[in-house]
Amino acid sequence: MPSLNSDSILSVNNHLRASFSDQSVLILNALGGIDEVEDIILLKKDSTIKSQMKILQLKSAINSKINIAMTELDAVAAEYDCEGERVAQMAYYVDNINSEKNNRVVYYSIVAGALTSIAGAIITNDNVGNVVDIGGGVLGAGLGFATLNPKGKKVEFIHNRNILGDVWKGKLDSDNFPPFVWYMYSEKKFWGNTDNKSMLEHIKERWLKFNFENDLDAANNSVNFNEGGTYLASDLHNRNLMLNQMQSATRTIHQIINYLLLDLDKFVYEYK
Fold first, then answer.
1. N or C: which end of the chain has fewer CB within 10 A?
2. How far apart are alpha carbons 115 and 119 in whole angstroms?
């Protein structure tokens, strides 16, 4: 993975900051495009057609590296999207099962209440009637309680390749992500914030607060961040939300790279 020592990289390439933003310099370094830019600077001193053609060739080489990076970003975003669709379908399935279960419980509760009313109207013996009323009331209340507090159905969902696990841990222990994509997630200077945090750190804070109600133990032990297991509907909905957030964050990197393309075009155009 490219170096995260951004201050050192910017210091060494300080002369490029007149034409490129700090973010653009860091991306060029990560993609191995600094050498081409240095060659362009030298060729600018020569106004011959040959030099101009060489500059365009070097620019094309940089663009090729950028296109590869964009393709990697698209591939990762597509995986988030596909995984999110699969999880959403599973959540929908479990929700429907739970809904059908609740409907049956409501039906039985209504029947129990109706039978109690009928029995109360038919039975004239006070003691027997009281027993029926109480028994029916308890049965109806029990079914109603089950309706309000369903435990819900569960599904087994195994994912040995867990694209959320590395994000939560904040370190790449697998080959789930291309090095460049992980670098963009990890480098703090790409996210334009004053608290000096990377995208990974911001995402983790958001998940902890809104998905796990600041319960760090629950988050660390969540089925979402390991190899899978038994999922409740709430777990599936949580997973879908987190996948969608990561897809959006990954697509945001496109905009950062677009600024590099703009800087590069201006850099070459100024020569002309």
1. C
2. 6
d(CA 135, CA 154): 32
pLDDT recorded at residue 269: 79
The predicted pLDDT at position 174 comes to 84
DSSP code per residue over the chain: -----HHHHHHHTGGGGGTS-HHHHHHHHHHT-HHHHHHHHHHTT--SHHHHHHHHHHHHHHHHHHHHHHHHHHHHHHHHHHHHHHHHHHHHHHHHHHHHHHHHHHHHHHHHHHHHHHHHHH---HHHHHHHHHHHHHHHHHHHHHHHS----EEEEE-SS-TTHHHHHTS--SSSS-HHHHHHHH-GGGS--SS---HHHHHHHHIIIIISTT-HHHHHT-GGGSSEEEEEHHHHHHHHHHHHHHHHHHHHHHHHHHHHHHHHHHHHHHH-
The Cα 64–Cα 55 span in angstroms is 14
- The region that residue 187 occupies, defined by phi over 0 for left and psi between -120 and 50 for alpha, beta otherwise, is beta
- Rounded to a whole number of angstroms, the distance between the first and last alpha carbons of the chain is 35
Query: Which residues of the chain have a pLDDT value below 50?
Result: 103, 105-125, 127-151, 271-272
- Look at the block and give the residue holding tokens 């429907």: 96
Select from 218, 261, 211 the least CA-distant residue to 24: 261
Domain ranges of the chain: 6-271
84 contacts 243 by C-beta, under 8 angstroms: yes
CA distance 249 to 74: 12
- 168: amino acid identity, one letter: W
Of 22, 68, 43, 69, which Cα lies nearest the Cα of 272? 43
